[in-house]
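Narrative summary of target 7.
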Amino acid sequence: SGANYEQFKWQILEHLSCSSDKMRDLYILPVDGTVFCKDEDAWVCDSDTPLSIEEKELIKKSFENIFERSGLETPKKIYGELVEDRGAQFNFSALGQNAPVELKEKWDPDNKKRERIIGVLKSVLPGLSLHIGGTTSIEVTKSNIDKAYGLKKLIRRIGIAKEEILYLGDHLLDGGNDAPALTLGIECRSVKGPEETKKEILELLKYKS
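Modeled conformation, tokenized:
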């Protein structure tokens, strides 16, 4: 996921009540897989490929007046940080990181606004990758740091075969942050949200049993 570890913690981990032996089979890869976390009685994370100070300064500057430069109306209110430094990734959230979900869902349902923003950013961020994520986000990383990078790390670290992987994502179309997963030869399915994801997982568990 493009989310950082703290988001994983309050959105997912704090709501789980599994036994410790089952938790050992859960791995999370925040920030597009540049962070790898596993449960060893407590969560242990290691990270790699951070952005340089120079790259971070360039990215921050590139988002100045980005709505105006992209020909878009500037939101009347920004909820929290507009651009967040996640170490190996910068995350732009058009309405702010803490915007209400209902506002996020209405802002760019067809991705057209973010495609315009990315079109402007590409000329000033050569050599960096830009992907649409979530409902209002754009993720900026080093080149080739994407969902495929994270999946390759998972395959290598836990020794799982590609044939055993099912990838679920809501942005598998070209330009989406899940699209790189399609290049790995693993099974990928498109989902629209948590409920569809839950349905796919339950179907898989039913088939396995």
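The chain is about 35% helix and 20% strand.
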